Input
Amino acid sequence: MEKKLFVSKKIISGIFISIFLLLGLGYFSPLVLDVEAKNSETYRQLTLFGDVFQRVKEAYVEEVPDKDLVKSAINGMLANLDPHSSFMDDEDFEDMQVQTKGAFGGLGIEVTMEDGFVKVVSPIDDTPADKANIQPGDLIIGIDNEGVYGLTLDEAVEKLRGKIGDPVLITIRRGKNDPFEVKIIRDEIKISSVKSETFDNIGYVRLTTFSQQTTPGLVKAVQEFKKDLGDEFQGIVLDLRNNPGGLLSEAISVSDAFLELGEIVSTRGRDGNDSTHHYSRPGDIINGLPLVVLINSGSASASEIVAGALKDHKRAVILGTRSFGKGSVQTVIPLPGHGAMRLTTARYYTPSGISIQAKGISPDIEVEVAKIEPIDFGIVREEDIRGALDKKQEDDKANKIADNEDNISETLSNDNETSLGDSLDVSEKRQDEIDFQLSRALDLIRGASVFNSLKK
Output
């Protein structure tokens, strides 16, 4: 035992001697030099920043407070990383915390930056922007007759904000059309993140955002469907159109509500080992009933997580148009005494391992926005034909069809006549009568319900 211990000490001593010899011969010098070179470059760049800061402070035409210069420098550094990284001072940080609780002030639009302009991701339901018909994809190129090109996203958002009741004039470019101006009155934005109703025996749930109210509101809506419809309950349409996202925890919770088992979403950072996986727990709140999810280009972030999870697990049919494609994770890092920074730290991946970023979620069934408009073609059926079998009162019906034929050309040429879709005021119609995508979703669930009843 003592001999073995003595040998071990000799080996250890030899290892240390070898290390010193290697250092002396320079075997580790490339590594040391590499670290020193990187540090030297960092110091050189920081020296450059200090020189510019000092020159601006001394020679700029107007005196600028140090605080403003530093804030602008930080904003520039973060804004040039990607459209979603930004700096928030104490006031902005407080506003963000209020937003996630479901109430804040402003116009009611989720925005990002594109080619130097502010791009609308989506308007929020029942807000001033929504009532002004602001649409996903609109570019805001001017605010109160001042261009926004060259501003950071935070600077542009700051200009859109203001006192409740004050107007703001924004200049919009929509597609290839000429720019136009829209005047919007600022208001307090109170978000009811869950809206629900029934269409016949089908539940409809619209999620406007993912806030702390979302999952409880969804569960409450489903409970009301079950109570009101009982055994006639056929399924749910989950509407995520123009939902700009929100809390990751709520996206996971909403997905979990419909999934029995499996991964919901994973996040992966710069380091390949820095990944997080989120899984569902047993229990489906609608017990396997048909589920259709509506998405469009205004469905972003948390909406895409839900749609991606339900699609990959084949739990729902995704219907509509391709989603926005915001698949990055922002971490809010508090800076005590200075606010916080929002930094992109990872990417989202669906359960099948597909990145959402810049790709979005493609629907299973692509359905573009369209107008529902019934047209009367003067339909003729068997019972309208003179002498048809098993027909009673042939003469009366023959006279009726003859009269119809005489009036068809007059009806089609009469400019004062309108189809059913035009003659009824939109406010008098149910939503599924004017919303083509929703109508298709409801038909899918009705078809699934009929098919299941045939199998039984």
About this structure: Residues 29-59 form the longest helix (31 residues).
